[in-house]
């Protein structure tokens, strides 16, 4: 495989980028205590994130019981049409393959004796 300077430069750039991104994980944290309003802000944002979890899972509550949307927000008719389409095209593809694939004999075709390159291309 031929090596090009462009490939080497791309690999070097990717390696440098990975080193720069991973080096941030080893920086020390803040030495001072967080202020009170930062703690309140963190608690409020955490509560908002927890409150949005059922919405992210497409869940809803009805009379105090939580239900999940098993259709992923897509109409059941669309699921039925998609399922029928997959099965129908699969059957069409299988039938076409069985119709047009011709079985190959058990022995390979004999086309002639071996000719060297010097005799084949004088």
- For the secondary structure, the number of strands is 2
Task: Output mean pLDDT.
Answer: 75
Q: Can you give the helix content as a percent range?
A: 55-70%
N/C terminus separation: 32 Å
Strand content: 5-15%
Strand order of the largest sheet: 1-2
Low-confidence stretches: none
> What are the secondary-structure elements, in order, as H or E?
HHHEEHH
DSSP helical segment count: 5
Decide which structural class fits the backbone. mainly alpha
Task: Give the overall shape, derived from the CA principal axes.
Answer: flat
Radius of gyration: 33 Å
For the sheet with most strands, the description reads: 2 strands, antiparallel
Quick summary:
The chain has helices at residues 5-23, 36-51, 53-56, 76-100, 117-120; strands at 59-62, 65-68.
How would you describe the overall organization of this protein?
This protein has 122 residues and is mainly α. Helices cover 56% and strands 7% of the residues. It is built from 5 helices and 2 strands. A two-stranded antiparallel ribbon has the order 1-2.
Would you spell out the secondary-structure blueprint of this structure?
Layout: H1 5-23, H2 36-51, H3 53-56, E1 59-62, E2 65-68, H4 76-100, H5 117-120
Antiparallel strand pairs: 1-2
Which features characterize this protein?
122 residues; mainly alpha; 2 strands; 56% helix
């Amino acid at each position: 495989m031929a090596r090009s300077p462009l490939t080497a430069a791309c690999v070097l750039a990717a390696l440098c980028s990975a080193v720069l991104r991973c080096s941030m994980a080893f920086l020390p944290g803040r030495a001072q205590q967080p202020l009170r309003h930062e703690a309140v802000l963190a608690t409020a944002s955490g509560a908002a994130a927890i409150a949005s979890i059922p919405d992210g899972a497409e869940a809803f509550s009805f009379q105090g019981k939580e239900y999940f949307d098993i259709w992923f927000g897509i109409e059941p008719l669309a699921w039925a049409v998609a399922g029928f389409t997959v099965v129908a095209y699969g059957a069409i593809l299988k039938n076409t393959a069985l119709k047009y694939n011709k079985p190959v004999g058990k022995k390979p075709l004999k086309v002639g004796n071996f000719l060297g390159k010097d005799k084949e291309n004088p």
